[in-house]
Amino acid sequence: MSRAQKGILKISDGIIWILAAIILFYLFIISIFGTCVMCYTDDHIYYLKDFAGIILVGIIVLIIILEFFYSKIAWKEKHIFFGLAVLTVLWAFMMSGLILTMKLPTTYDQTFVYQAAGDLLKRNYSWWQVNGYLYMHPYQNGLVLLESPFVALFGVDAYLVIQHLNILLWIGTMAGIFKLTKRIFCRKTAYLTYFALLLFVPMWSYVTFVYGTVPGLFCSVWSMEMAYRFMDRKKPGWAIGSAFLMALAVMLKTNYEIFAIALILILIFHAIREKSARDILAAGLIAIMVLLEIKLVPVIIHLLTGADTLNGIPFTAWLAMGLRDSSIAPGWYNRTDTLIYQNSNGNVTAMRQAAKDSILGSIKQFVQLPNYALSFFGRKTASLWNSPVFECFTIITKRAVKGTKPLPYWLKDCLFNGGIVNTLLTIYMDVMESVIYFGTLAYLVFERKKKNPENKLFILVFLGGFIFHMFWEGKNQYTIPYYCMLFPCAARGVFLSVQKWRNICRESKTDKNRLAVGRLLLDRFVKTATGHFLIAMAVILLIIAVIPARLVPTTFKIRGNEREYIYFCKNETDWKAKTYYYW
Q1: CA angle 170, 175, 180 (to 5 degrees)
Q2: Closest by alpha carbon to 320, among 271, 348, 354, 368?
Q3: pTM, whole model, 2 decimals?
Q4: What does the pLDDT read at residue 569?
Q5: pLDDT exceeding 70 applies to what percent of the chain?
Q6: Mean pLDDT for the chain?
Q7: How far, CA to CA in Å, does 460 sit from each of 465, 467, 529?
């Protein structure tokens, strides 16, 4: 490998590492000082105070507990595999029972796509006529085509079949992430990752989501796994399979283009390192397949319906939306796309110009009012990445209102804000989020010397999602696929932290002299770059902790809606029995 090639890889790895370290450190800070919650009857984000000291102590206790298990229990792979398999089967039966109990109908965009799939089979093309939903939003056509066979085969119960299929797809996704984690890191990290994903409550809710989120993530993950197999074995079949699955993921949900871009970059990095033209061809094949899908779906829909599929709302309208305020949270849905369409009378050229004018207007406002810009992007970032429940309660409760079967009381206690179980689940996910950010940050610190951008796949996907949704329309449910990519890195970071702790404990046992032990610990912090980083992080956290919240309300301590949230929980109590006590 030439100096130029080494330089390209080193610079690429450095850029990825620096961006990830800064972003993850910021997310970790805001996750321990605050949290965000969306209530079940109110499309509004509440910014709440968190308890940094308790969370930090909890992380330390977690590492000590894991160290105890690692040292006391003889880990046998067959036992771990069997235990996770049993838990997975139990989880699958539980989710199937919940799906059949709730029988949640589709809602909002889910409903429009689902009904359009049925109408396509009936040759009712009103959805594609001027001012129709799919005329305005042609990017949903791929999902319509993929849902149509389910409606054709299963009729009115197709939505329940799709939800059960999501159970299998999420298990498959966890298995795919497990294989990627084992390949990039190690087997123990992979098992820890799978276990953490299985305990990730928000995805339990998204299994009931009749949309492209879960199936698209499944296709993306296995596309990446196939691409890594191709890099190892150079068999064309793996590259073809990877390209096909990635195109299918984008067909299910256009945002999975970010996964495609990350994978293409990984293949290019590997091609530079190994001087392999085949990897470049594989990257090109993925790009071609994704572009072909984007161009081919409108043609298919045009042939089936005769409708014009090229005059929808331009994607820049969602960029304009992401740079404007909203009653929910900054950059969330605010009808900008619909208003641009209506004000332009559906004219594509006029819509593009209107979107451009809106974007430039927002940028001008940010430049003229830097404090507002700081507040806007600070609160938007928190609403997207510091809302640990990821709308998992609201995507069920909003559909339950439209359902024909009322939810059981115990389930309402789990889903509705103010319920005891709901509060406990929220706290659990809040702590888990801080652990994920801490673990990923620890991974970046401990393995900073491993200059290998090809192994930064998970981080690269996360960075793409973070940067994209910083400016695009925001929604907590949009960020969950990228958040899932942090689990392997977090597991690796926690695993390395446990190893570091074990090494210190082992060395301290060999020398009973307390002074020697103290010197050992001091050397670890004073004479190593890792120690320097941890000291700097501790100092920064301490400074932020003692600074009054009013001085950093839009950067590190984004909170202040505690009274409003408590008032909501105390007054929106229609679902509660009179004997139900809380607070």
Answers
A1: 125
A2: 354
A3: 0.92
A4: 83
A5: 90
A6: 87
A7: 9, 11, 24
Number of structural domains (the chain) is 1
Report if residue 413 sits inside a domain.
yes
72 to 66, 492, 502: CA distances (angstroms): 10, 20, 12
Q: At what angle do helices 109-121 and 141-154 cross, to 10 degrees?
A: 60
DSSP letter for each residue of 158-208? HHHHHHHHHHHHHHHHHHHHHHHHHHHS-HHHHHHHHHHHHT-HHHHHHTT
Residue 4 has pLDDT above 80, yes or no: no
Q: Cα–Cα distance between 508 and 413 in angstroms, integer?
A: 48
Q: Flag whether 336 is in a domain.
A: no
Domain containing 301 equals 3-311+386-571
Residue 549 burial class via C-beta count within 10 angstroms: exposed 0-12, middle 13-18, buried 19 and up: middle
Q: Which of 416, 517, 338 has its CA nearest to residue 37?
A: 416
Q: Which two tokens stand for residue 546?
A: 């003692």
Task: Tell me, yes or no, whether 377 lies in a domain.
Answer: no
Residue entry with tokens 């332009």: 344
Q: Work out the number of other CB atoms within 10 angstroms of the CB of residue 411.
A: 18
Range of weakest confidence among 67-71, 120-124, 366-370 = 67-71
Cα–Cα distances in Å, from 244 out to 147, 248, 297, 352? Answer: 18, 6, 14, 31
In a domain, 304, yes or no: yes
DSSP strand pairing (42-49 vs 34-39) = antiparallel
User: Could you report the per-residue pLDDT of 147-196, keeping only the tens digit for each?
Assistant: 999 999 998 889 999 999 999 999 999 999 999 999 999 888 999 999 99
Cα 125 to Cα 492: distance, rounded to the nearest angstrom: 50
pLDDT at 530 over 70: no
pLDDT at 508: 61
Report how far apart, in Å, the C-alpha atoms of 465 and of each of 257, 304, 432, 469, 480 are. 10, 34, 20, 6, 10
